[in-house]
């Protein structure tokens, strides 16, 4: 990750799911070249993304423990199980205003982080069978984005 070496990623075990032929599906590397046309817009075996909720829980705990910030409830949007806003505490006079981050745990299952961009960070980014995202790669990318976003927040007083 590189941004915050103190963050501990919870163990992410890939879920063994077998296809119709009885062989395990190699999520993240299923397609040799282009995926089949019928894989687009279909999201099967979404349970493989359930560990992402634990990653978001660990990120929240880490940010609260290491950064001077507060957390509050955010209104839920469609498909969200839980949503929280993280806001850096006010810094010294004249310090730049630091944007809040809205974390959401979705019933897909997945997680999103609104970090002041037009498009939120999401894990998985898509989740359809054609995209074939690996849960570990999705978790690492999501955690890296959140940790980069809070890197300039003041540290929590010890």
Walkthrough of the structure:
Helices cover 20% and strands 18% of the residues. The chain is of the alpha+beta class and 158 residues long. It has one domain. Strands 1-2-3-4-5 form a five-stranded antiparallel β-sheet, covered by helices on one side. Helix 1 (51-66) runs parallel beside helix 2 (135-150). The longest helix is centred in the middle third of the chain and has 16 residues, at 51-66. The model has no long low-confidence stretch (mean pLDDT 89).
Distance between the termini: 24 Å
The number of domains is: 1
Seen as an oligomer or otherwise, the chain set is single chain
- Give the strand tally: 5
- Mean model confidence by pLDDT: 89
Biggest sheet descriptor: 5 strands, antiparallel
Strand order of the largest sheet: 1-2-3-4-5
Structural class designation: alpha+beta
Rg (C-alpha, Å): 17 Å
**Number of helical runs?**
2
Work out the strand percent.
15-25%
Order of helices and strands: HEEEEEH
Shape: elongated
The parts where pLDDT drops under 50 for at least 5 residues are: none
Helix content: 10-25%
List keywords for this structure.
single chain, 158 residues, alpha+beta, five-stranded antiparallel β-sheet, 5 strands, 18% strand, elongated
Could you give a quick summary of the protein structure above?
It contains two helices and five strands. With about 160 residues, it is an alpha+beta fold. It has a five-stranded antiparallel beta sheet, covered by helices on one side.
Question: How are the elements arranged and paired?
Answer:
Layout: H1 51-66, E1 69-73, E2 80-88, E3 101-106, E4 110-114, E5 121-123, H2 135-150
Antiparallel strand pairs: 1-2, 2-3, 3-4, 4-5
